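REQUEST ID: PR-0412
SUBMITTED BY: lab tech R.K.
PRIORITY: routine
TASK: structure prediction, single protein chain
INPUT:
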Amino acid sequence: QVHLVESGGGLVQPGGSLRLSCAASESIDSMYLMAWFRQAPGKQRELVAGITTSGATNYADSGKGRFTISRDNAKKTVYLQMRDLKPEDTAVYYCHAGPPSTWGQGTQVTVSS
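STATUS: complete
OUTPUT:
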């Protein structure tokens, strides 16, 4: 089963930007959907953005216009570019691939002044 490792999280001020990366241990060419989810303390995990093998994307309303998901199959990596970050974006961000369903361990994003 593919292993996913997220990176790029950290502490950023409101209005700042971060780029998250999700590196896969093997080819993601056949992974129909790669996605980013997030989970804030006390809240359920929620979809942030997804991208299919054809490059079709979808975004949660909270990130539309601010977040961009992309995938580089050659590098076996999926990215989430986030800009104009807000305190409410603070959460652990998880990479997901599937099928079959696979989760990464997550990377913390904290937006605070």
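NOTES: The CA atoms of residues 43 and 103 lie 18 Å apart.
REVIEWED BY: pending
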